[in-house]
Amino acid sequence: MILSRPQEAALWRGEDVAAKAGVxxxxxxxxxxxxxxxxxxxxxxxxxxxxxxxxxxxxxNGRQAFRNEAGQTILGQLVSREMDSxxxxxxxVDQHSINRAADLVMSARDIYIYGRGNSIPxxxxxxxxxxxxxxxxHDLSGETDQDIAEQLLRMxxxxxxxxxxxxxxxRPLRQLLNYAEAVNCKVLLITDDLRVVHPVPVVTLAAxxxxxxxxxxxxxxxxxxxxxxxxxxxxxxxDVAPFQQKLKNILEGFEY
Length: 256
Hints:
Layout: H1 6-9, H2 14-21, H3 25-34, H4 40-68, H5 74-90, H6 95-107, E1 111-114, H7 120-132, E2 137-139, H8 145-151, E3 160-165, H9 171-182, E4 186-191, E5 203-206, H10 219-235, H11 237-254
Parallel strand pairs: 1-2, 1-3, 3-4, 4-5
Keywords: DNA-binding, Transcription, Transcription regulation
InterPro entries: Homeodomain-like_sf, HTH_RpiR, RpiR-like, RpiR-like_SIS, SIS_dom, SIS_dom_sf, WH-like_DNA-bd_sf
GO molecular function, one term: DNA binding
């Protein structure tokens, strides 16, 4: 199970692995020791290290090619960086994870979306796309702590929290995730760094966006969002088609 889902496994605690595998916690420790590790914690650290090396290698290759292209315009260089990041994303996120994210969206009663800073445009686009699919959506980005707290009053087990978090975790994000865990709300994390959050999300979509300290793109998380939407339209066509037709009818009414 760990090998089939290495991105998410790098975030799991020992008890998370045991629960997902349906075994006692001691079995996880024994398995890690059989693989040559002192315990599961050391195995998880190795998974994180390997993933970090993979992300670094993807961008090192792209960055070297980027620097070797002499005479490029700034626009041309940015396009090259975008292409490198988008290409790396295909090797970081598989279709199974996209499908699981789509299932979470469609099974949720209410969807809460959270992001800060550069993530706010992503939250806005997520709200719009999910709303067009007939989902009940609450955008928490750009809100004050008071506004967020008021919107969380009805959050519960049937709901989903979608989080855009990059590079580092913040105190408000940690508080929000802790509250979601307390009320059994599922979490979908879209990120570029597997170590940014805890508690562990149900589904994590992680792909590099560029090197820290240099230009980082929003195209990669937007690509993952679009992949989720397309997966929903393909897998839940009969569920979303009535809402799309209704939206079309409403818009046509405004035109007359």
